[in-house]
Amino acid sequence: MRRSLTSRAARTLWVRVAAIAVLTVPVAAQRAPQSGVRTLANVLQLHELLISPASDAVFNASTDPPTDDKGWTAARNQALILAESSNLLMVGSRVRDNANWMKMSRALVDAAALAADAAEKKDAMALESATDAITVACMDCHRQYRDGGRQMGAPPR
Ligand code: HEC
User: Average per-residue pLDDT in the chain?
Assistant: First the structure.
């Protein structure tokens, strides 16, 4: 008798535990982050922090090619920063749409990868054509997404 009471109590407890699990797990799952990624900087900030300084450095290395290993490594690293910051354009809150925005961000990744490769090979000619591709990638995106296609350069005052 006592034994069966205990087991009934135990069963009741398990039913409760199961019910709580069923009720709380989906709520917990909804609250949990979808991934480890948490984006903070907006598109403009990504430009200010990464894209503009890195692309400036790559453009400079193209017009005035490095003369030593250290300089080429620095140029390659800036091209890698540019490539990876273009990847960041395709993550989280920065994504404007799932079509051209992604294509144009990816185009900048690819152009920056060409520049990284050229710098790795210390190939000034290849770096020059890579920076042409970078310029095209910047302008293509600005034409569609940056205030009515204003050309590159300082914003109007
Ligand atoms: C995928 C799209 C995209 C690409 C690629 C891109 N930009 Fe931009 N860029 C934008 C948008 C959108 C803004 C406006 C951001 C804002 O004001 O919120 C912007 C703003 C800027 C600004 C800020 C000041 C201004 O004139 O409005 C500069 C400078 C700039 N971009 C330069 C570049 C350069 C250089 C590259 C290439 C190395 C580049 N961008 C690549 C989308 C892009």
Answer: 86
- Number of neighbours of residue 71 by Cβ within 10 angstroms: 15
55 lines ligand 1 (CB under 6 A): yes
Tokens representing 99?
């079509």
pTM of the full predicted structure? 0.80
**Ligand 1 pocket test: which of 42, 85, 141, 150 has the largest number of ligand atoms within 8 Å of its C-beta?**
141
Q: What are phi and psi of 34, to 5 degrees?
A: -70, -30
Closest by CA position to 115, among listed 78, 70, 68 = 78
Give the end-to-end CA distance of the chain in Å, rounded to a whole number: 88
